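idk why but the lab printer keeps eating my pages so im just putting this in chat instead. protein + (2R)-2-hydroxypentanedioic acid:
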Amino acid sequence: MSSFVEKLRTIVGDKGLIVDDQGKHPYLTDWRDNYLGTALAVVRPAATEEVAAVVKLCAAEKVAIVPQGGNTGMVGGGTPHEAGREIVLSLNRMNRVLDIDVIGYSMTVEAGVILKTIQETAAQHDRLFPLSLAAEGSCTIGGNLSTNAGGVQVLHYGNARQLVMGLEVVTPQGEIWNGLRALKKDNTGYDLRDLYLGAEGTLGIITKAVLKLWPKPKDVATSWIAVPSPEAAVELLSGANSASEDNVTSCELMSRQGVDFVLKHITGAVDPLAERHDWYVLLEWSSTRARREGQDGLREKMEAYLGEAMEKDLVLDAAIAQNETQARAFWALRENHTESQKREGPSIKHDISVSVSKIPAFMTEGLAAMNRALPGCRPVPFGHVGDGNLHFNCMAPAGWDKARFMAHHEAISGAVYDLVVGYGGSISAEHGIGRLKVDELAHYRTRIELDTMRTLKRALDPQNIMNPGKVVRV
Ligand code: FAD
Ligand code: 2HG
Ligand code: ZN
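predcted complex ->
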């Protein structure tokens, strides 16, 4: 065993070190099975001081560090390279909720706490932590903050960046920055916190966070709606904002193709509507005001609104959940999109955004561009239409293997991204850059943007040991 690994063992103990191939394997590959890397060791510190000591050792020995949380990322940011002197630093043992301040609406947690645990802890105290995504049972808050994750409630509460007040970070030199402030206002110089949020582990390691909490909703209405087109979906959402008295918390668009994959691959999934339709919207309104006896609640208001929308031909058919079980079943149809596409076969993902009102035009042009790039491919556009964020995914023609499909990757993604940029949009709305989109970032961001990013990276991490080769090359 090398002396480097033995020094790691002195810091984190046997419990915090994985060196055998079988044990390391799950940490060396990504959720999408796109990458398989190597690492000298997987290191699992139990406390911030241990993280700092590991980073100091790596800095002295010039070993690179790949931080990892739940390893659910979509762009390979948490996976080590195929060759090189790297360790994976997993935060999964740092999984304690440290404090909940019910009066001050905040919670302090370690970086490795699973998102679902945070949601449940908040709920037990009659509070809400609104970050919500299909990977919530396995992703960690450190990963969420490092990717500035989005999810299904961004249009109301904002993305991860908006849900955090303070951070503790271990710098690439192994120093501990304690920025665990529960302050709503703090204009004391440059915002260091914002620098680390969304940095994908390239500038430092997030070890703790102070999160913002909200009042827990007391009245929720959820509907599964067939709409004639993406244009109708956008119009429906626009009207819903006032009809709901600004209580729209989710608005997700899906195509028939995506729903068909869920029905095919996910046991227990059921189409709530009798007839097939081309497009669907999952709309959710929620309010902190409880339903009152004898008064209309959100469900009745939503029913009235959808009735009016039907008369305007914005809605073809709809089902409103009558209880939580039904609402969960609607959500399962949406949340299982990613899993069912993985089971269906190879896919190329495009996590793009344009302004909400441009979604319909983008959809028409984008679908045509994809089909031109590879006739016979199976587009699966879906996602957070209320944020202008589509998962403009492209599945391989039926029966194709990954290698055959990937030969068309550049043509397909180039066509989609060129169009996105023409619309003033973004080539990564919520999943980040990781390793997958490093070249695309270099191509689509301006020289001054790239220079500024590189200047920051070089200043904070002059040895380039913090997740090198991810986000931006220096
Ligand atoms: P990891 O995958 O472990 O890491 C992600 C990145 O963060 C890597 O670059 C890693 O190096 C870095 N990192 C991790 N922890 C730290 C830390 N403590 N300090 C510094 N850097 C760190 N994403 C969305 O935005 N919206 C969605 O709706 C969504 N839905 C998903 C659904 C499914 C089924 C799956 C599989 C993924 C989905 N994702 C979604 C992507 C993914 O869940 C998010 O990116 C999530 O935030 C990653 O968290 P993680 O703990 O798994 O991070
Ligand atoms: C979602 O919104 C995730 O479900 C994953 O961001 C999207 O599978 C995808 O492309
Ligand atoms: Zn998403």
